[in-house]
Amino acid sequence: VLGLGAAAALLAWAPLAWAGLAAESRLRMAAVALAGVACAALLWAWLDLRSRMWHPANAAARLAELQSRIRPHFLFNALNTALALVRVDPERAENVLEDLAQLFRVALAEVGASVSLEEEIDLARRYLAIEEVRFGPRLKVRWDIDPQVFAARVPPLVLQPLVENAVRHGIEPAARGGRVVVRAMLQRGQAVVEVTNTLGGPDDGPGSPGHGMALHNVRERLRLLHDVAAQCDVWRETTPEGELFHARVVLPAP
Predict the structure, then answer these.
(1) Could you tell me which of 34, 52, 112, 154 has the fewest CB atoms within 10 Å of its CB?
(2) CB 161 within 8 A of CB 232
(3) How far apart are CA 224 and CA 231, in angstroms?
């Protein structure tokens, strides 16, 4: 940009020099080029400032758009679970409906920039509590949470799609069910949340194929909130106990 500014200034000065209206000297040419550089730098600074002024509004709008794309299929499954329990176990049905009401409150709330990780973990607990009622002994859940990470900031509903994927693609297709483990800890000055689920064995039918939209949504919202300071990774691991699927979110430490 600065080079183009210098070139534009020299091109504008050249006809004046050719017509004899400007004195020709290397010093004057350098001064004209520097004047062009200065004008280009001022223009660039103004454009950069204007971009920075608009960036927060654009990021907020993009966050709102991405959150609106979340399709809470789990709400319908939870509602069906509660309906099935109303007659046979009213007390458990009441507990499920309380968790469901909290899930609806968050899913339908006004979009905010961020929430605490503690709120997201509480929401994931409520979701998995409902799924434990739905799957019974087929779903085993373990929590390993370090309270030091509670103050970390995350976009709303960023953890729930990860635990939902763990249930839909790991537990649901497995005839014997499986295990979901949620860990949250501080590592090297960062808050790390990891969701691990078992995968069905060779005798189980394949689960419904995913399109990666939920993971893309999570990664994009993390990028908008924390830029390069946050990330979301997934990978498979083969262990003596069977195959595991991991989803990990790394956040700036609170």
Answers:
(1) 52
(2) no
(3) 11
pTM over 0.85: no
Phi-psi region of 174 (alpha: psi -120 to 50; beta: other; left: phi over 0): beta
User: 53: buried, middle or exposed (CB in 10 Å: 19+, 13-18, 0-12)?
Assistant: exposed
| Residue 180: closest CA among 147, 214, 220, 143 | 143
- DSSP character for 168? I
81: left (phi over 0), alpha (psi -120 to 50) or beta: alpha
Query: For 188-197, what is the mean pLDDT?
Result: 94
Task: Identify the H or E element spanning 193.
Answer: strand 190-198
Say what the pLDDT of residue 67 is: 57
- What does the longest C-alpha to C-alpha distance in the chain come to? 101
